[in-house]
Amino acid sequence: MGIKVKHHPWNIIQDFWDPDLQEDAEAIFSLGNGKMGHRGNLEEYFSGPTLQGTYIAGVYYPDKTRVGWWKNGYPDYFAKIINAPDWRGVKTTVNGVKLDLAKVKIIDFERVLDMKQGFLSKSFIAELNNGQRLKIHSIRFLSMANDEIGAIKYEITPLNFGADLQIILDIDGDVKNRDANYGEKFWEEVEIDIEPFPYLITRTKKAEFLEKKGKKSPQFYVCNAFDTQIFIDNLQQTVISEFKTQPKYIAQIYNFKLKQNQTLTIYKYVSVTSSVFYKDLEQLRCKAFENLDIALGLGFDELLKQHIQAWDEKWKQSDIVIQGDVAAQQGIRFNIFQLNQTYTGKYKNLNIGPKGFTGEKYGGVTYWDTEAFCLPFYLSTAPREVARNLLIYRYNHLPKAIENAQKLGFSGGAALYPMVTINGEECHNEWEITFEEIHRNGAIAYAIYNYIRYNDEPQYLAQYGLEVLIAISRFWAQRVNWSKPKKKYVILGVTGPNEYENNVNNNWYTNYIATWTLRYTLESINYVKQNFGDDYKRIVQKTNFDEETETLHWRHIIENMYYPYDENLNIILQQEGYLDKEIVPASKIPENQRPINQHWSWDRILRSCYIKQADVIQGLFFFEHEFDLETIARNFYFYEPLTVHESSLSPSIYSIVASKIGDEQKAYELYLRTARLDLDDYNKEVREGLHITSMGGTWMSLTYGFGGMRIKNNRIAFSPFVPQKWQSFSFKINFRNWLLKIYVDKKSVLIDNLSDEPIDLYLYDKPYTIKPHDSLRAKAQHVKHKTQLAFFDK
Amino acid sequence: MGIKVKHHPWNIIQDFWDPDLQEDAEAIFSLGNGKMGHRGNLEEYFSGPTLQGTYIAGVYYPDKTRVGWWKNGYPDYFAKIINAPDWRGVKTTVNGVKLDLAKVKIIDFERVLDMKQGFLSKSFIAELNNGQRLKIHSIRFLSMANDEIGAIKYEITPLNFGADLQIILDIDGDVKNRDANYGEKFWEEVEIDIEPFPYLITRTKKAEFLEKKGKKSPQFYVCNAFDTQIFIDNLQQTVISEFKTQPKYIAQIYNFKLKQNQTLTIYKYVSVTSSVFYKDLEQLRCKAFENLDIALGLGFDELLKQHIQAWDEKWKQSDIVIQGDVAAQQGIRFNIFQLNQTYTGKYKNLNIGPKGFTGEKYGGVTYWDTEAFCLPFYLSTAPREVARNLLIYRYNHLPKAIENAQKLGFSGGAALYPMVTINGEECHNEWEITFEEIHRNGAIAYAIYNYIRYNDEPQYLAQYGLEVLIAISRFWAQRVNWSKPKKKYVILGVTGPNEYENNVNNNWYTNYIATWTLRYTLESINYVKQNFGDDYKRIVQKTNFDEETETLHWRHIIENMYYPYDENLNIILQQEGYLDKEIVPASKIPENQRPINQHWSWDRILRSCYIKQADVIQGLFFFEHEFDLETIARNFYFYEPLTVHESSLSPSIYSIVASKIGDEQKAYELYLRTARLDLDDYNKEVREGLHITSMGGTWMSLTYGFGGMRIKNNRIAFSPFVPQKWQSFSFKINFRNWLLKIYVDKKSVLIDNLSDEPIDLYLYDKPYTIKPHDSLRAKAQHVKHKTQLAFFDK
């Protein structure tokens, strides 16, 4: 069962047709260009199971919170990037019969996602009940060169008959979200016309429940305009068409008489503009028409060419080549492709949803995934502004994060960044997460550190970073409390990254990232004070910062934080009391009970020792430089066997750490669980959408993991090895002003400095300098860790 | 603000009219007779704020679960006793204008709930805009003598004009629940007719979502039939009427021309039958008509007389007389009255909802409140079968409780009784309660112990009790686990009675009641084995009980359970790690932040030390006989200052324990928080309904608390004192075969043995025998506890 795509280095190929697997295919064949995206829905009529999904970045609806039992502090709504008007329809009626792909016989079906060139194509022969056959071929893309344009080339050829065809090209704004909390539709029609182009302007409804509370409801306007070009056997035609409009719907209807073997080609050009980027209706409309004029002027082939060039630029910086394993090659490229489709970093007001534009789950809005799993990818594969914009997104949300903390009872400028947000307001509504999974606040601080460390750009602190750090530190300083029995600071009632434990006390990861934030903030204060005196004064004033008192308190916390530890096993404890549980390795769970989150009651999961995703190990990854290898290894060998990796974010982190401690086999085994997660539908849920943010983790397990990439003494460092099964792999890194290519095979490592400046770096901990446009070649090493500790029987 | 009723020993009197407080009044003026009940809604038109509520015992709808985030193990639905067809309408139009009590001027309004006689009356003068005045007087009751009959006497007199009146007498089945999860209406019409009486049969909808899952949806049928008698100036009239029907609605419409000062009297007799008690439609219909025939035959006055007699019987057994404090007298009678209205114990398939028939909250279904707070009241004030039926209700649910445990991963006949249920299935859907508030299972066991202890009826074990005990013990035996670090059994991930802590480890109360259950089950096994050998064999076979292995394990748990304790303060710890919190007495919370559950975020409440309701103290109340007074007192003085009593179930338990340790002032102070909770609307929420189950607690704080009533060496014991502010109080106790009256004033105690048998009992720990129909008089003592420990500054 499940969709199986063919292995190919650059393409994702589905060479069979199964209408029941269309939802799976829709996720895998998703397209995006950062500003919009959609699932791989068909252009054709299709009455089979489908999750129609078209999304426009930043266009959301505040869907009224739905909970069973209200808790004080819950948000009013869950913001979701909503299903937007669907402009992809090219719907055919043959001699009066609808060409419905769920109802006709489909022969020689092939659907291809060309990742190198960034387009989706599809070809098949449809055989009607009466034996009449039509050949169909379509190409679709969302331009990376002009991110408000989409285009479809649709060819149709009757193979064994002369056909009366009616073709409907439409824009359907009467769409809904499957996950609407109260079954509502979110769109209203604003304008519909056929001049100068057929177009539909819709707007999102105002959320009445917000307005009733005296709060402003956000409202977005979207314009979808389209035009067509018609060819028969490569000769352009002028064809009379009709228009049909319904509420929130416009269609252009063509009628053709085709002879046998004549090919009709329709080009459908679409422009999608939204009020996220244009302030008034006039602008929105004009810009949509302007885009269409450009598209029509260029024509399909030229538009596609520009699109492919834009993708070429992306691949130049971000491609990873794996030799000796086509499945792995395809897997890593799929990850890179999807990350680039989801976020381009052009806009400070956009971010990355866990499922990007590929499904409804998680509402397309922002989680800590962005900072912990995606930032490193964009840091290394895209121009500096891209990662910077991810940081500034959070900087701009700082006032809302402060409000959010106030709502929970904190004061004095303390900030708690939301678990889920699109506009800075918390949208999550599950107390054990919303209020308790506060380690996310640390990830925001860590991202600042990570960005600065990577780019050697401490001045970022003066402009943006320090304000955020102070606010987060203030939160930690209030969130801890002094335990009399322990004579230590404790952090009570939290949920760590391992969400299979809720409301625990002294989650080690949380306690650690809290004091780390305080330490880093103190350092940053000193740096800014010394180097950007005026900025420091501005920040002190703006944040009402009482340096002496506040930092004194922070130092006291840093020096007196409680960290749960077991002296017998000599391991860090995930949380206080963790060893009171029955500790049995996950390998003992019967296979038919996995994944446990689909087989066990929530309470059984909670009481068990099983770990959903890296928790202690997430900390040892982030703060690796503060621990010796022995400690990291001991904890790895204790916690990995207890981890069920039921979050897509888990195996990548464990894989990186396994690489670090020299357990190459384990590193590769875990890599496999993340690399083709969606292509092989490991979790049997790909139909819901792709795990976009976890793809950043996959990328890391290859570059940070197998590549051993780190920043060390302010230089880049590599300690690469190639997994047994592969011949070689290579990746490119955009590091500060340098572009590097790292190649590794069984015997050797080759690092090319593709830049005009010499670079000082480390390879296997030894310093080297590589001249501009020169290379470093060295023998490949495998760092073997001495002992593979076994805490458990197999 | 809020409704203020007049103090009166027997009556609840509202002597003002405020349409905005009608919802408050509706709760307070609720009526019930165990089989049905309703809020104090008006018979008249009323366009002001109202929560219309008519409930029929056992008639529920499985409302599809509504949660934000689904957790494995959640139930399909929340069963709720739904708002049933409203038969109370007597709606008047005066010269073409609706008499709407929200729109006319109301003069001399008085509404009286006569608790002694069990009826609700109301009188007022309505002045229309044109100055025309009508005098209205109504009486309404739900017969305690025939619990399927309700009646209204409605008198209307135009005072200063001749009136054209249209009066609509209706049954309105087109009602809905305000708390319907998806806004659905739950009723469908089945039959509507005017012969032999106007009647409406409705049925609850089938829950489609259940049927789709292949499960059977429950469905209930209800027949409402009515008839009228008309008098003008005491002369019976034969008046032609019209009927009007609409879907789920039937009305009988009368037109009258009244002269000034003529009084029209309408008697509306209603019979309500449900398929909870009648198997087919024919029976349902016939029984309704039969009831009406009886009612019409008796007439209003005779019906009322029988009703009053039935109440008289109840008061004879259950009245409490307080002298010197009318407010207290009214308060305690209101509690007793409501308990008797809610549950009569006639039917094994009924139970007690936390709000009885007075509102929608908690769905009218069963919580552990029944066993912990209500059972003692019925044990002492009603015939033995009444309390017994409460126990058998749970016995009958045992198979479902075993299923429920299986759903959560338990096996081998372990039972987890639901948090909320009507048919034995769990309906609650909040993981920290549903899955974790497992101490409820202990309360079911404790109720068996309590019933047997009170009635000296250990043979109950053989017939019903032991099966339940074994199943609950099996649950505990699987729910504990062995902690290697502690070398003890622990119970992880629970919520104790204090729901302001969730998912804690080793809640002392839970651990204690778990081992207590195991101990009691072991004892019970021995008893049944020795005294009811055949029953024991039957039970062993039925439950597949492996006595040797299972009891060995239980003994090991009993001997090795972990109980959190602080050696420094010498107190029991509510849960492991409780003292890691910041411990500040509740008196330090600013008044404007109370109650904290209306002012603080949930996470702030959870992290705080504040206790919602008795937890350690609940345990010390239940298991008082296993602790010395010093221990009880120490823990009381530690925990009471940390308790915010934001559950209605809290102050009563603390009050009883305060009485026990001789802190009379504290006992009285806490009593005041429970005794008039609803009458004085202490929590500003009475409009939602009355706190029926907490009324059992109030009764206990008077009898167990001030009265010092206990079972001791298999005899009843008293240690009464009268609170300073009162002159005296007295209560009656139905104990085994005896009826006792206990009177206490400042100087003396008087115990009357109202039975035909002598009784051996204790008074102030001294044994006495009282001959039949004789009395014991003794000096009143005040048991003063030596030290009032102060753990905190004021």
What does the model show?
The structure is a homodimer of 794-residue chains. Chain A is of the alpha+beta class. In chain A, helix 4 (326-342) packs across helix 20 (692-706), helix 16 crosses helix 18 and helix 18 packs parallel to helix 20 (692-706). In chain A, 33% of the residues lie in helices and 24% in strands. In chain A, strand 28 and strand 29 form a beta hairpin. The longest helix of chain A has 38 residues, at 281-318. In chain A, strands 1, 9, 10, 11, 12, 14, 15, 16, 17 and 20 form a ten-stranded antiparallel β-sheet that branches. Chains A and B meet through strand 22, helix 14 and helix 15 of A and strand 22, helix 14 and helix 15 of B.
